[in-house]
From TrEMBL:
SUPFAM superfamilies: CO dehydrogenase molybdoprotein N-domain-like (SSF54665), Molybdenum cofactor-binding domain (SSF56003)
Pfam families, A to Z: Ald_Xan_dh_C (PF01315), MoCoBD_1 (PF02738), MoCoBD_2 (PF20256)
Region (Disordered): 621-644
PANTHER family attached to this UniProt entry: ALDEHYDE OXIDASE 1-RELATED, XANTHINE DEHYDROGENASE
Keyword Oxidoreductase among UniProt keywords: yes
Positions of transmembrane segments: none
InterPro entries: Ald_Oxase/Xan_DH_a/b, Ald_Oxase/Xan_DH_a/b_sf, Ald_Oxase/xanthine_DH-like, AldOxase/xan_DH_MoCoBD1, AldOxase/xan_DH_MoCoBD2, AldOxase/xan_DH_Mopterin-bd_sf
Protein's UniProt name: Xanthine dehydrogenase family protein molybdopterin-binding subunit
Length: 803
């Protein structure tokens, strides 16, 4: 029998090509293309008074210079929409003052790095030379930097947005204020997470080629959503969608920043290719990524909580302020996720959450791996630790007393999630996960270890954090599967891949569902020429969405194969099975009558002409004709192939718990992670090795977000650490070995029982590490990330307060 593939730690089929240098990234394309560079604003807030390109016109290799006025002229002449503001991708009723940027600045710049002029030249060197010679005159305006400045609203980012508030949203269940006021115990906390950003190996990039004879546009872009870019580019350039194709080559990391679409460059580069009649290309350099892509994380929270003598929550009220930067193209997804995922695995009693999403003169904010969940987890877990400290209770015990129980699933939190549907947890065993975590990290024995370390002059501490992660967000994904006449199985899905191992994981599913050897399966992602309809790769949704889609598609192909083979084998469909790519009668074994799927593919496509040996078997004289049976049955199409779509009723919810042991140096305040333990529940594990790889990567980003990574803005809006010399990321030496255990509670919402895993590792990092530092130092930690110098000053403040 065929070895079952789902659940096996199959090595990734992508890796040999990628690790031997044979990947094809965006910058590997288009060596014959014109190249683009941009004049970007050096100021955070200013009006553009004049653009003088005179000195740039004699640069050798210059092809064209475009400003906003050129976009307006093109709109008037050709009916394009390139001069209009970029779309607000996800509207929301509470988003009353949504503002998005223009592809090139329309008279005003609102953050350092905003594009003002596009230069096209024979190569990037010439384009950069021309950029250096272009002079822009500005009228300076007062920049608004940081949440506090935005809240004060002494100045405005956009003149027509009162108070700098794009949106104000409230959700509540019960009367939280009354419950808190009546509770035996109450606490108030102010908590903060600072800005950070993803740093993919490869920045954004676009290559576009216009075929004038065919009147078609082909765009290669390093994106997480090729099908949506296709729609956006077609709309902006006033082209029929079927004349635009978007292909995603290998992508060196996405992490959420590449889900935004269209980026200005994804409009401008294809537009220039169309106007110039030549291939045009742009690749983002590292400074551009810092100052013109997207950041995340920055939020301030005020928490009021009421609880009983046992530490059980009676009421929770949270108000927070979210910094979304100069524009808000991705809507309120990040703060909505924070406000709803904050609850984690707990029953909060009555709950009220209110947030304001605020404009600042800084780079836009869009989802970054975790997408609002790290902030919510930090707030909830710091609150749990504060309750435990107030009551003198074990921190794990307080959590356990507030858990939703397995027999309460599905559990309705009474809120609306980011997909517009109920926040309804589908599955999970939170007490079971906690028991595993405590055993894995040695929670109950840690007090003795801490005392021994103190006797040695060392400071060690332990912390834990729990989370629930909404995954598999809709509305749909699809798949297409075709069996070739040689037995090869070709799988296509519209979702893109950025290094997660999708080709391997999806092939494992198809191998099991279709009964074919894993080695025969080829998977293509992110190519609209192969599959036209998709939503995108984000929110830990590929296994849930595309995995389910290719599973149901494989079942459709299997059903068709059995139906066709039943005639050839003169057996009933229900008596047939597919094993190792061969259809055979059940119970007959390897020596029984069978027909391979390649032959079934031939028989599925009745032909008039024989173009190879296999095709001969499908021509009209290859077998006696059945007068009562047409060559192609009604309702079917030729070929052994099918397309199917999967649309979930709502998101599914993964969960997990992390425990961290840290050591803090008594003299230097250096913080070292000694142990990092994870218990994770993503339902059915399709490939445990890939899941654990995703957790390892997430933990690395969580450690970075807790201890190193932050966007450091000056009051004038200048990003002070816009390079890898100043923006710190953890090396392998700073990322601990990750110890992992799994708990499997399958989701009832999809055919595979899977829940997403891609973002899990990063979500509780800041919360768990803050708790461990607090335990080691005896100093309250309310703000992350934290550096040794900040810990040092907290020690001084604590000593002064004690004296």
């Amino acid at each position: 029998m065929t070895t079952r593939m789902v659940g096996e730690p199959v090595k990734r089929v992508e890796d040999p090509r990628l690790v031997t240098g044979n990947g094809r990234y965006l910058d590997d394309l288009g060596h014959d293309a014109f190249e683009v560079a941009f004049v970007r604003s050096p100021h955070a807030h200013a009006r553009v008074v004049d653009v003088d390109v005179t000195d740039a016109l004699d640069v050798e290799g210059l092809v064209a210079i475009y400003t906003y006025e050129d976009l307006v002229a093109d709109e008037e002449e050709h009916g394009t929409r390139v001069a209009q503001a970029l779309p607000l991708l996800i509207p929301h009723p509470t988003l009353t003052h949504g503002r998005t940027q223009h592809a090139l600045a329309n008279g005003e710049v609102n953050h350092v790095g905003e594009a003002i002029v596009m230069v096209v030249a024979s190569d990037r060197y010439a384009a950069e030379d021309a950029v250096e010679r272009i002079r822009v005159d500005y009228e300076f305006l007062t920049p608004i930097v940081g949440v506090e400045a935005a809240r004060a609203a002494e100045h405005l980012v956009h003149d027509d947005v009162p108070g700098n508030v794009a949106a104000r949203m409230v959700q509540e269940t019960g009367d939280a204020d009354a419950a808190i006021d009546a509770a035996p115990h109450r606490l108030e906390l102010d908590l903060a997470i600072e800005r950070s950003a993803s740093m993919p190996m490869e920045g954004k990039g676009v290559h576009a080629r216009w075929d004038a004879d065919d009147e078609s546009l082909t765009v290669h872009t390093s994106t997480q959503t090729s099908t949506s870019v296709r729609q956006a580019v077609a709309a902006k350039l006033n082209l029929p969608v079927d004349r635009v194709e978007v292909v995603t080559p290998d992508v060196g990391g996405g992490f959420g920043v590449k889900i935004v679409h269209p980026w200005p460059e994804e409009v401008l580069v294809p537009w220039a290719a169309l106007r110039l009649g030549r291939p045009v290309k742009w690749t983002e350099d590292r400074r551009e990524h810092f100052v013109s892509s997207a950041h995340e994380r920055g939020q301030l929270h005020h928490v009021r909580v009421g609880y009983d003598d046992e530490g059980r929550l009676l009421g929770l009220s949270v108000k927070f302020w979210h910094d979304h930067g100069a524009y808000i193209p991705y809507g309120l997804i990040v703060p909505i996720i924070t406000s709803t995922q904050l609850l984690g695995p707990y029953k909060p009693g009555a709950y009220r959450v209110e947030f304001e999403s605020l404009y600042t003169n800084t780079v836009i904010v869009t989802p970054y791996r975790g997408a609002g969940r790290p902030q919510g987890c930090f707030v909830m877990e710091r609150t749990m630790d504060a309750i435990a400290a107030d009551l003198g209770l074990d921190r794990a015990l307080v959590r356990e007393r507030n858990f939703i129980q397995p027999d309460e699933m599905p559990y309705d939190q009474g809120l609306i999630f980011q997909d517009g549907r109920q926040l309804l947890y589908d599955s999970g065993d939170f007490p079971g996960s906690l028991a595993k975590l405590k055993e894995l990290v040695g929670w109950d024995d840690f007090a003795a270890y801490r005392e021994q370390a103190r006797a040695e002059g060392r400071r060690v501490g332990i912390g834990m954090a729990c989370y629930v992660e909404g995954t598999g967000v809709g509305p749909y994904e699809g798949g297409h599967i075709r069996v070739e006449t040689d037995g090869t199985v070709v799988v296509s899905t519209g979702l893109t891949t950025q290094g997660q191992g999708h080709q391997t994981m999806l092939a494992q599913i198809v191998a099991d569902e279709l009964g074919v050897p894993f080695e025969r399966i080829r998977v293509t992602t992110g190519d609209t020429r192969r599959f036209k309809y998709a939503v995108g790769t984000f929110a830990s949704r590929t296994a849930v969405m595309s995995g389910s889609a290719v599973a149901v598609t494989a079942r459709a192909v299997r059903e068709k194969a059995l139906r066709i083979a039943s005639d050839a084998l003169e057996a009933a469909v229900e008596d047939l099975e597919i094993v190792d790519g061969n259809v055979r009668v059940k119970g007959t074994g390897e020596n029984g009558a069978s027909v391979d799927l390649g032959a079934v593919a031939v028989l599925s496509n009745p032909l008039r002409y024989a173009f190879d040996e296999a095709a001969k078997r499908a021509t009209q004289f290859a077998a006696p004709a059945d007068p009562d049976k047409p060559p192609v049955a009604e309702g079917e199409s030729p070929g052994l192939e099918a397309s199917q779509f999967y649309s979930p009723p709502r998101s599914t919810f993964a969960n997990g718990m992390h425990a961290v042991v840290v050591e803090t140096d008594p003299d230097t305040a250096d913080i070292k992670v000694l142990r990092y333990c994870v218990v994770h529940d993503c339902g059915t594990l399709i490939n445990p090795m890939i899941v654990e790889g995703q957790i390892h990567g997430g933990v690395a980003q969580g450690v970075g977000g807790a201890l190193y990574e932050r966007m450091e803005y000056a009051p004038d809006g200048q990003l002070l650490n816009a390079s890898f010399m100043d923006f710190l990321m953890p090396y392998a030496s700073e990322v601990p070995e990750v110890e992992i255990d799994h708990l499997v509670t399958p989701s009832p919402l999809n055919p595979l029982g899977v829940k997403g895993a891609g973002e899990a590792g990063v979500i509780p990092g800041a919360a768990a590490i803050a708790a461990a530092i607090e335990d080691a130092e005896g100093i309250t930690i309310r703000r992350m990330p934290i550096s040794p110098s900040e810990l040092f000053h907290l020690r001084l403040e604590n000593q002064e307060a004690g004296s």
